[in-house]
Amino acid sequence: MGFLEILSDVLSIITISLCLILKIPQIINLVKVKSAVGINLYALLLELTSYTIMTCYNYCNNYALLSYMEYPIILVQEIILISLVLKYMGLLGNISFALFGVYLGITGAFMSTLLPKWILSLLAPCCTPVSASSKVVQLLEILRTKNAESISILTWFLSAFTNLTRVFTIYMDSADVTLLVNFSVSVLLSTSIMLSAMYYKHPKKV
Question: Does the keyword Transferase apply (predicted)?
Answer without folding.
Answer: no
